[in-house]
Amino acid sequence: MPTISFRINNDLKKKMDELSYINWSEIIRMKIEEVIEEEERKKGRKKDLRRIKEASIKSYEYFSNYGGKKSEETIREWRDRNWQ
């Protein structure tokens, strides 16, 4: 297994030494794996242009159905109707 090294400041090293029962190498390995997995997930995500287009059309339809009002105005109307 390859070995890597890195630097940390003295305060952090002292705190790690106080918690000597923790396997710091394992913690660092786990975190590196976590970051790599997240980055690979990000790379694997591709924009679904069809779904984006559909969402855009629906958004426009909703906007048109409510007379082009701002969302605050529409919410106020709904609240007013429900409290009468």
What features would you describe in this structure?
- This protein has helices at 10-18, 24-44, 49-65, 71-82.
- By secondary structure, the protein is mainly α.
- The chain folds into 2 domains: 10-44; 49-82, no CATH class.
- The termini are far apart.
- The relative contact order is 0.04.
Record keyword descriptors for this entry.
about 80 residues; mainly alpha; 2 domains; single chain
Task: Give a short overview.
The chain has 84 residues and is mainly α.
Helix content: over 70%
- Poorly predicted spans: none
Order of helix and strand elements from N to C terminus? HHHH
Q: What is the molecular shape?
A: elongated
The value of Rg in angstroms is: 27 Å
How many E strands? 0
Q: Number of helical runs?
A: 4
Average pLDDT number: 85
| Main sheet properties | none
In terms of structural class, how would the helical and strand content be classed?
mainly alpha
Give the terminus-to-terminus CA distance: 72 Å
How many domains? The number is: 2
Beta-strand portion reads: under 5%
Protein name: VapB-type antitoxin
Protein topology:
Blueprint: H1 10-18, H2 24-44, H3 49-65, H4 71-82
